Amino acid sequence: METSAIIQAFIAPLTIGGISAVLGALISITDKIVNNYGDLVIDINSGKRELEIKGGAPLLLTLAENGIFIPSACGGRGSCGACKVKVVTDVGPHLPTETPFLNKEEMADNVRLSCQIKVKENLQIEIPDSLFNVKQYAGTIEQIVDLTHDIKEVYVKLPEGSEIDFVCGQYGQFEAPPYDKIKTPTQRAYSMSSAPSDRSHLEFLIRLVPGGIVTTYVHEHLTEGQKINVVGPFGDFNVKDTAATMICVAGGSGMAPFKSIFNHMIDTGEIQTREIWFFFGARTKNDLFYLDWLNELDAEYEKFHFVAALSEPQPEDNWDGATGLITEVLAKFLTDKVDRSQPLEGYLCGSPGMLDACMAVMRQFELSEDKIYFDKFA
Predict the structure, then answer these.
(1) Low-confidence ranges of the chain (pLDDT < 50)
(2) 195 Cβ contact list (under 8 Å, min separation 6)
(3) Please, which residues bridge with residue 20 across strands?
(4) Which one of 95, 100, 196, 343 is most buried, counting C-beta atoms within 10 A?
């Protein structure tokens, strides 16, 4: 090879590398200049709160950093649609990542997903006043109990001097710290299973979801005595103040809000005066838990009725209770056992498929949509 060719062979990649480095530096500098939105102000609820912030981050994160916590079951990934806020300021058209979660009325009212909106200018937004009461707590894991092969009861002690005021049926966002699956803290939403009367603790029932970021951390890494962040309370799933018979249906960790609800009703005495039917569905006996407690409630309180049903009972289960899909069992009891001459209300917590199926059954028995309340989780 001639000397000039050798020189060119070395110079060419160096030149390309040099150009790439220069371009990379220019892009980096340009990005910092272009995305340096400076000091901005977020006006919340017409001056009720004003935040002076640095621009450039998503609205969801910016609000959280300033103590305003918007519900986000997916941790800001844009996959749950929970972090809705009304943005009064014109920030452009709705993004394709937002539209699947918004109906026509919300879009017309300029409701946006706060995780998808980057703060680039002064903003005026509107949120429910209740969100001003949401706080982040640096709790301590006081106890972890294996309820089934894939559900853990996690009991969290709040910081000394801290108390939480919540309504049974609400949820909190439980945070996993960085570990081998994630580089930044990540939150997921779980119903609180503790009674509102215990204001210094929070309890969660967390089922292991294959591949789940936070559930994997809880089941494989979380230890008693560990510090953990919890944000809450969120949600509007709660018991209505009526005398209607409660038809409650849950499966798996959907037990959580009902544990909170029933203990609260014990505390208030309402469990003695209001008719309650609680249907809990599982595959096998190994998927059932709290049976002793629920059967004791059934025996002690005349108006409380507990029905556990197995869809796939195994020979070794020696099961003599209800069998079949929970929808089949629900329909049978609504036909033969429940007094339908009295007003009925439906309360559901479980997977989207289970909830949709149970709501279809309830509609067949003339429970109107506005009398069915649910907490749906993926």
Answers:
(1) 1-18, 20-22, 24-25, 27-29, 31-32
(2) 168, 260, 263, 264, 267
(3) none
(4) 196
In eight-state DSSP terms, residue 85 is E
Residue with tokens 């059954």: 361
φ, ψ of residue 242 to 5 degrees: the values are -135, 180
List strands edge to edge, sheet with 304-310.
322-323, 304-310, 276-282, 245-251, 344-350, 372-376
CATH number of 39-131: 3.10.20.30
Q: Using the 8-state DSSP alphabet, how is residue 378 labeled?
A: -
Which residue's structure tokens are 């049976």?
Answer: 291
Selection from 16, 211, 347 nearest residue 24 by Cα? 16
CATH tag, 245-376: 3.40.50.80
Closest C-alpha to 319, from 284, 281, 290: 284
> What are the extents of the domains in the chain?
39-131, 135-234, 245-376
Amino acid at 94: H
Q: Please check whether residue 217 is in contact with residue 181, taking contact to mean a CB–CB distance below 8 angstroms.
A: yes
Do 113 and 101 meet the contact criterion of CB atoms below 8 Å apart? yes
pTM summary value? 0.85
Roughly how many angstroms between the first and final C-alpha of the chain, as a whole number? 65
CA distance 195 to 271: 14
Q: Which helix (H) or strand (E) holds 306?
A: strand 304-310
The tokens of 90 are what?
């014109």
**Residue-wise pLDDT tens digits, 26-66:** 544 454 455 678 899 999 999 999 999 999 999 999 999 99
Angle at 41 between CA 40 and CA 42, to 5 degrees: 130
The residues near 40 (Cβ < 8 Å, ≥ 6 apart) are 52, 53, 54, 55, 119, 121, 122, 123
The CATH classification number of 135-234 equals 2.40.30.10
CA 172 to chain centre: 7
- Interior CA angle at 317 toward 313 and 320, to 5°? 75
238-258 pLDDT per residue, tens? 999 999 999 999 999 999 999
